[in-house]
Amino acid sequence: MKYQAIIVEDEQLNRDFLLNLLQEFCPHIEVVATAASVNEAVAAIRAHDPQIIFLDIELQTATGFDVLELVRDTKFEIIFTTAYDHYAIKAIRFSAIDYLLKPINYEELTRAVSKAIESLKVKQQDDRLELLMRNVRIPSGDDFSISLSTAEGIEYIPLQQISYLEAKGPYTTFFLKSGNHMIVCKHLKEYEMMLTEHGFFRLHNSYMVNMKEVKKMIRADGGYAVMNNDAMIAISPRKKDEFLQLMSRRLV
């Protein structure tokens, strides 16, 4: 089965390069149109109703998000492309939407395409795009929400609702302020990379805490962080000094 795709990229060389990669390594993808601007992209999407869009974040004087604002009623899988670590990459990661850094690697491309096709096959109906657009509008990231895929489905959790995370092998458990918890099949390290800039701190190999949810620190027995829900989490000796510094700087 062929899946129709559109490439939105303002540089001719990059468009041709991606097109050639898709033709060589993704024969099940049929590129039905290319676009170099927001207007061209919107027209192509409305004309072809593609299943996959390869969308450059920076488009001359506009962005790929301007395209999405104008075609929100259309269902498709998005694979972003960007030449550098764009500020929006953070929002994209939180929304669990794929992106490719240029120059695009064919192995990363085939993986992203495979994931997009898998989502299309199961007709995955979720709010990843809504979550992404909401997060993009919040440059500070203070009110970010994160996409969590559990055995029951996909849920979108505001960061401020997370108390702490616990690692158990390849799984991570999210403990929420509500008292509920969610188990996700991802290593804690992946979430450490996303959450550290948002007030979370990995104080132990198995735990990462929302610093705003730390009620106090107990120095006995090596040190513990006491959370607002009264959970007691051991502090790794090598993390103690950094944790104390963060506690001393905390304003709330």
TrEMBL record:
Organism: Pseudobacter ginsenosidimutans
Response regulatory domain boundaries: 4-117
Pfam hit, one: LytTR
Modified residues (4-aspartylphosphate): D56
Keyword list, A-Z: Phosphoprotein
Protein known as: LytTR family two component transcriptional regulator
Signal peptide segment: none
Keyword Manganese assigned: no
Annotated TM spans: none
GO molecular function per UniProt: DNA binding; phosphorelay response regulator activity
Location of the HTH LytTR-type domain: 146-249
